[in-house]
Amino acid sequence: MRLYTTFGSPLGEFLLVGEESATARGGVALASLSMPGQRNAAVVQDGWRPDACAFAEVTRQLRTYFGGELTDFDIEFVPGGSPFQQRVWSALEHIPYGTTTTYGALADRIGAERAEVRALGAAIGANPLLLVRPCHRVIGADGTMRGYAGGIERKRDLLVHEGALQPTLF
């Protein structure tokens, strides 16, 4: 059964969606974390059950992340995506807090061919777990912010929060 709750953050109210899991701490495996206005954001469906208690561990980790105390999430995820997406998403999980990488470097890391770089970008864009699977840490080779489903301004805000970017003065 799908469960959901919301979480108020400095970036707006997140929608957390998960599935009951006997192995996950707190009893829920996270299937989606989406932000307001996000491209392809999850939408609550008929039959889903609200259950804030099931997400207590996830929301605790989000609070400590935004409080500047947590740098690495320890959350069970619902498996999903194609084998290629899973490779890309796994590589995202290994980008350290406070750092960035480029699309090309990420492609090299997973052994993607030059022709697969566009597919890599699409896989990053299809990441259903914004923030906890840190696709915001992938930037253009020239240092520009590119293609974040939650919006470029939020991507910049997250990178400033993590110390990977300096805040702008204007």
TrEMBL record:
It comes from Streptomyces humicola. Residues 3-77 form the Methylguanine DNA methyltransferase ribonuclease-like domain. This is Methylated-DNA--[protein]-cysteine S-methyltransferase. It comes from the Bacteria. Gene3D superfamilies: Methylated DNA-protein cysteine methyltransferase domain, Winged helix-like DNA-binding domain superfamily/Winged helix DNA-binding domain. Keywords: DNA damage. Residues 83-164 form the Methylated-DNA-[protein]-cysteine S-methyltransferase DNA binding domain. Pfam families: DNA_binding_1, Methyltransf_1N. NCBIfam families: ogt. InterPro entries: MethylDNA_cys_MeTrfase_DNA-bd, MethylDNA_cys_MeTrfase_DNAb, MethylG_MeTrfase_N, MGMT_N_sf, WH-like_DNA-bd_sf.
